[in-house]
Amino acid sequence: MTVPLQAEALDISFKLVPAIIVFLMMASFLVIGYVFKVADTEGMWVAGRGIGNIENGMAIGANWMSAASYLGLAGLVALSGFYGLAFIVGWTTGYFVLLIFLAAQMRRFGKYTAPDFVGDRFNSPTARALAAFTTLLIAYVYSVGQARGMGLVGQYVFGLDIIPMIVVMMTITVGYLALSGMLGATKNMAVQYTILIVAFLAGVYVVGFSQGYSTVLPQIEYGALIADLGREFSAPFVNQPFYLWIATAFSLIVGTCGLPHVLVRFYTVRSERVARWSCVWGLFFILLLYWASPAMAAFGVDLFQATTGASAYAAEGGMSGAEGDVIVVLAAQFANLPTWFVGLVAAGAMAAAIATTAGLFITASSAVAHDIYTELINPDATQRQQVLIGRGTIIGMGALVTVTAFNPPALIGELVAYAFSLAGVVLFPMFFLGLWWENTNRQGALAGMVLGLLIWITSIINSVLPNYIGALGAAAGEGGALVPIYAQYVPPIGAALIGTPVVFIVTIAVSLVTPEPPLETKKMVRQCHSPEPMGQQETAADVVGDNTGGGTPADD
């Protein structure tokens, strides 16, 4: 069943002060994008590799704090109860894996994009094309949830139907991204993070204090509500198999480490040390919101019941999926806070959605312009041609995402989780093995990536498309899946629990029975683990190329 297009409990009307707040915020994004506009590929894709650790940490936080985190995470907890905690566990744990195993090593490899790493590490244009296709697919699925969040919030602020609001907000977002590239997007992300975290924490503190839920630490004090809301949070979890909780958390952990728009942030910094520290700062900035999100969900559920008289999980008359998606705004509205304050909370959600959309669209545009057009189609492409192709990709992707967001097949948080599952199955094994096992070769990578794509795509066809396409829905019947046993063990939201280990095994097995990669490739892998510092614009390939003495660089 498709989620409703409108959150019925929202006060859908034009609100002058919130509208002014959103207008000024969007105008500032356009101005920053213009001031930091770029004309070369270095600025377009990796911001000139000159971003510092705190600024990059804020960009990581904003890049990460999508509508799924700002709106959808609280909504998932509100609608799914304790099952929703799997999202908090998965989305935070993944950053520890990134910090330990990938951040600095990726920076030392030193390319432009995630497909760039795959293509050069495995010496394969086909692997590059598969990684670019996967990057586009991730950006598309992930961005639909962001566009949906923008529309819901715009609906509350401007009082219009959700469809024109999605069109307007996506048009503004696409406009500043096509102009600014990664450099302007990074500068904007620091501003966007400041807006979203101030708005969210202000909402949690004011709602908690004004309603008597909490005083100085709502992140902890909300636990007192659990006694009253115990059934509300446990009832939906009772109906979810524990396997699904584990599968969801695991997929989100490995998916975090495979997301191209997250990993590209480590290409934008000055050095591997800055890459590590920006990951630490990013995790801290993320913690500020994730620690408070369950509190906002608890406040919202209790206020929903008090205001509407309906249980959040009642079969009839309960909270709809769209209302769960905007529970953060609803909580402030039901607390009878001033309209301008509710508008501030809504503006934070808009900033979160735009920041993540920026990162996704930049990675999608670089995948098309750099990895497909320049590397595979026209190696003699000028920088101007690459930038134009990249901007055209942003516009095309924006149009496709906008249309899909009119009638999405799932909740915001679920849509984002599908993208994480894809990244965890297809890209994470390539990044991890590519950096940590020098004998991983082209044949192994191709076998693993093709298998990973098949696992994820069949899972989506089996379990998601029947809810979206009438003919498949009729074939699936009441169970909602074409093959119920496959849906049980390889659910789209947790496909990586089985898919990722299988891809690892196949990639390793095929690599063992086929020729080893070239010595130069092995040297690049070793260089990624060297203790020797590298220049700001230097890459592992540069170091290997400069090593004319015949020895292996940093052979540790």
Automatic annotation (TrEMBL):
GO molecular function: transmembrane transporter activity
Region annotation (Disordered) ranges: 527-556
Domain of life of the native organism: Archaea
Record's subcellular location: Membrane
Topology in membrane: Multi-pass membrane protein
Membrane-spanning intervals of the chain: 12-36, 85-104, 125-144, 156-178, 190-208, 242-262, 274-293, 340-368, 388-406, 418-437, 444-469, 489-514
Main location group: membrane
GO CC annotation: plasma membrane
Composition bias type Gly residues, residue spans: 547-556
InterPro entries: Na/Glc_symporter_sf, Na/solute_symporter, Sodium:Solute_Symporter
Pfam families for the chain: SSF (PF00474)
Keywords associated with the record: Membrane, Transmembrane, Transmembrane helix, Transport
Family indicated by similarity: Belongs to the sodium:solute symporter (SSF) (TC 2.A.21) family.
Record protein name field: Na+/solute symporter
Organism: Haloarcula japonica (strain ATCC 49778 / DSM 6131 / JCM 7785 / NBRC 101032 / NCIMB 13157 / TR-1)
